[in-house]
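thought: user wants a sequence for this fold. calling inverse folding tool.
action: design(structure=
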């Protein structure tokens, strides 16, 4: 009419409500943006405390237990290591938050847990866990003498070890979100950096609180037995959860990088174990008064080769990011499809209930839910009874579409479980820890019937 040309872009999605377009409706879960800084900090503190009970933290519990057992009621050493652990946790939480801000400012679609979406980082962590396990098994010693295990608990090496335990705990465990933690993180990543860092600091304080408070409670520390030969036995026994953590990370890498990545990390682990054995032999020879320089050189070469193997790059991912395919294994007995916003919209248009599982291979909580909640006969029967469609959004590798969907629901990490009703509307958000009954009830509600046969 006016002689001008117009170009119209249409995006798939639900139709706007009657009465005009108006401002966009907030996605479910984004109400946490109105928390306010004090409440967000309180939620972060509580979420950090609860994170200690999540399955994600189990792989590093042995490090904490070994550290506590070594104090034997020595209050000064316990307080020093408690503070060192707290410092390691806080530094890592704030460091990861800073990297996340930088990545997002650069336009990258990343969220909480981004560090474990890198095959090189996962491979490096697997080697670190293996090295820690070999140390606890007595193959070599760091921070203590091979003749005097348990001595020098207040030494600098012990403090560095406590801080490093905090670093490992955060890097491996924090990507899984605990109750209250999800809302606090969703708030933090929409606020200016100073406010966001305050929320992350509270998250770290909550996560480190149990260990640090215990270290500063003389009455509890005095109940621990005195150091003795039992410590060496306990230390070696607690090495096996660390071997388990290394094996889990190798499995995660195999999901991300396929057979080539698996072969590379197995070779690197073998070389690292050989280097650790040679290093331990060098330590024992030096204590006996012999020459050990050549052995130390061999150990250094082995370490360099293992590090080079994981740092060389060139990992071929098991699937390209953004293709909607699923890496994580689907629940037993429940047919699944890859998630995509378009698929959700199409199923809603057909009047079908939809269950969306935002998961990742590196999320231990997600894997526990897969076995406990989804791989059961009751849940399989509920999917069949309600005709619900099970969609899996796998975030094992970086995926911008999944990161965007998480942000739309006020989340920055997995797990996230959404249940769309057969009659349309916004989805129901389920808790991070699931039970078969909870999933079955949510599906019955989504299908429009609470009654079970």
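)
observation: tool returned 453 residues.
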């Amino acid at each position: 009419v006016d002689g001008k040309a117009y170009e119209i872009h249409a995006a798939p999605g639900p139709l706007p409500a009657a009465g005009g377009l108006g401002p966009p409706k907030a996605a479910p879960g984004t109400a946490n943006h109105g928390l306010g800084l004090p409440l967000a900090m309180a939620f972060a503190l509580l979420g950090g405390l609860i994170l200690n009970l999540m399955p994600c933290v189990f792989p590093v519990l042995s490090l904490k237990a070994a550290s506590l057992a070594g104090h034997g009621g020595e209050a000064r050493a316990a307080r020093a290591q408690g503070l060192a652990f707290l410092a390691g946790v806080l530094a890592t939480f704030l460091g990861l938050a800073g990297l996340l801000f930088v990545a997002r400012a650069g336009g990258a679609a990343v969220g909480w847990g981004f560090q474990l979406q890198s095959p090189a980082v996962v491979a490096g962590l697997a080697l670190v866990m293996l090295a820690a396990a070999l140390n606890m098994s007595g193959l070599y010693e760091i921070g203590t003498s091979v003749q005097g295990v348990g001595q020098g608990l207040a030494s600098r090496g012990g403090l560095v070890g406590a801080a490093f335990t905090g670093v490992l705990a955060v890097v491996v465990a924090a990507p899984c979100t605990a109750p209250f933690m999800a809302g606090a993180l969703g708030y933090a990543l929409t606020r200016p950096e100073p406010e966001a860092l305050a929320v992350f600091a509270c998250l770290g304080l909550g996560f480190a609180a149990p260990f640090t408070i215990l270290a500063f409670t003389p009455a509890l520390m005095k109940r621990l037995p005195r150091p003795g030969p039992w410590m060496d036995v306990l230390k070696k026994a607690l090495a096996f959860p660390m071997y388990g953590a290394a094996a889990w990370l190798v499995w995660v890498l195999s999901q991300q990088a396929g057979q080539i990545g698996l072969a590379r990390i197995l070779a690197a682990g073998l070389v690292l174990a050989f280097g650790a054995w040679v290093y331990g032999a060098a330590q024992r020879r030096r204590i006996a008064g012999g020459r050990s320089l050549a052995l130390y050189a061999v150990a250094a070469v082995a370490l360099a080769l293992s590090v080079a193997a994981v740092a060389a790059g060139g990992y071929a991912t098991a699937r390209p990011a953004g293709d909607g395919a699923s890496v994580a294994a689907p629940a037993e007995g429940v047919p699944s499809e890859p998630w995509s916003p378009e698929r959700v919209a199409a199923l809603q248009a057909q009047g079908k209930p939809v269950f969306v599982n935002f998961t990742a291979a590196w999320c231990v909580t997600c894997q526990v839910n897969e076995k406990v909640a989804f791989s059961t006969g009751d849940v399989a029967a509920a999917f069949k009874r309600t005709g619900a469609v099970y969609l899996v959004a796998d975030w094992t590798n970086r995926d911008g579409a999944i990161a965007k969907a998480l942000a739309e629901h006020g989340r920055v990490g997995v797990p996230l479980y959404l249940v769309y009703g057969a009659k349309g509307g916004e989805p129901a958000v389920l808790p991070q820890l699931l039970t078969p009954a909870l999933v079955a009830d949510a599906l019955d509600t989504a299908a429009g019937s609470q009654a079970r046969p």
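thought: summarizing for user.
answer: Here is the designed sequence. The longest strand covers residues 354-359.
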